[in-house]
Design a protein that fits this description.
Distance between the termini: 27 Å
Strand content: 5-15%
Helix content: 25-40%
Shape: globular
CATH class of the largest domain: Alpha Beta
Largest sheet: 7 strands, parallel
Mean pLDDT: 95
CATH topology of the largest domain: Rossmann fold
Number of domains: 2
Structural class: alpha/beta
CATH architecture of the largest domain: 3-Layer(aba) Sandwich
Oligomer: single chain
Length: 328
């Protein structure tokens, strides 16, 4: 009977209504401690991990070199040292694109929530300040997607879905990417390219849709916040490490940006001392935080986890897995 080690807990299978394949034995790892992970992998063929897994480093990989495949249950794999895994002969695979529309929907929802100040409006109305908050928001001025200039950092599968919805809703959409897309794709999506500095200075909303790599880590920091247009809003549903967390907290405190919505933080889970959890009341009102849930509706997670299990089955059947991110 094949043994699979899984950092993905059993309740995630149950929540997604996914059955464990017949003939498999899964060692569910109750902790992400390196010691338990290493022990659970000793007799396993494959290791299943969530996309947000952290610190699968060379020290861990050397002790689980018997593993044939580390399978991410999502698009992300930035917490795995894929170069070290390749040197040790361990393939790493992901499941890209399965939740692109799900994350895009969520991104649009966050934009609307920030533009219309929905959280503070809800809070103050429940506190009995109906007239006061209504007057305050009228004076402040609420905005909408139609007519807004929205800049996307990255237009991969998720960014492209976001662009389609925004253009349909009447926004002017620009994008930045290290490699400019071809003009046919730009025309198809109705978007246009801007260098990063120009995108930051001209956008009413900036939304991040790039993977976390050595090149993108901290790409939005203190200097980038200074370049942003006054009143700009920031959305991050990609990875927390792309944005300097201390710089984001400072930008909210000093009013460099009008608000932010983040579904991702660095690290995850955040410690009690994390700068975004220790804002002043005014800055806190301008920040929305959710616990990395943008892409995990029941239907999207069913697709992601199902595809991940299918890939593991290919390895168990002696076949080459798909979506290898560190080709050997």
């Amino acid at each position: 009977m094949p043994i699979i080690a899984s950092v993905m807990p059993k309740w995630r299978f149950e929540a997604a209504k996914i059955d464990i394949p017949n003939g498999w034995h899964i060692n569910f790892i109750n902790s992400t401690s390196h010691e338990e992970l290493i022990a659970s992998c000793q007799e396993a063929t494959c290791l299943l991990v969530p996309a947000a897994i952290q610190n699968i480093n060379i020290d861990v990989l050397q002790k689980i070199s018997n593993i044939k495949l580390i399978q991410s249950a999502g698009a992300g794999y930035d917490g795995i040292d894929i170069k070290a895994a390749r040197r040790l002969g361990i393939q790493v695979a992901n499941v890209p694109g399965q939740n692109a529309h799900t994350v895009a929907e969520y991104t649009i929802g966050m934009m609307i929530a920030l533009q219309r100040s929905l959280v503070i409006a809800d809070q103050k109305t429940k506190e009995g300040d109906y007239i006061k908050i209504r007057k305050q928001l009228f004076r402040q001025g609420l905005t909408e997607i139609a007519g807004s200039s929205i800049g996307l950092i990255g237009v991969g599968l998720i960014g492209s879905e976001v662009a389609k919805i925004l253009v349909y809703l009447g926004a002017s959409v620009s994008y930045y990417s290290r490699t400019r897309k071809n003009t046919d794709l730009e025309a198809e999506l109705g978007i246009y390219y801007k260098p990063l500095e120009l995108l930051l200075s001209e956008s009413d909303v900036v939304s991040i849709h790039i993977p976390l790599t050595d090149e993108t880590r901290g790409i939005i920091g203190q200097e980038e916040f200074k370049q942003m247009k006054p009143g700009c809003l920031l959305i991050n549903t990609a990875r927390g490490g792309i944005v300097d967390q201390t710089a984001l907290a400072a930008a909210l405190e000093n009013g460099q940006i009008a608000g932010a919505a983040v579904d991702v933080m660095a690290p995850e889970p955040p410690e009690a001392t994390h700068p975004l959890l220790n804002l002043s009341p005014g800055a806190r009102d301008r920040l929305l935080i959710t616990p990395h849930i943008a892409g995990v509706t029941v239907s999207s997670f069913q697709m992601m986890l199902g595809k991940a299990l299918d890939n593991i089955q290919r390895v168990l059947d002696g076949e080459q897995p798909g979506n290898i991110v560190n080709s050997l």
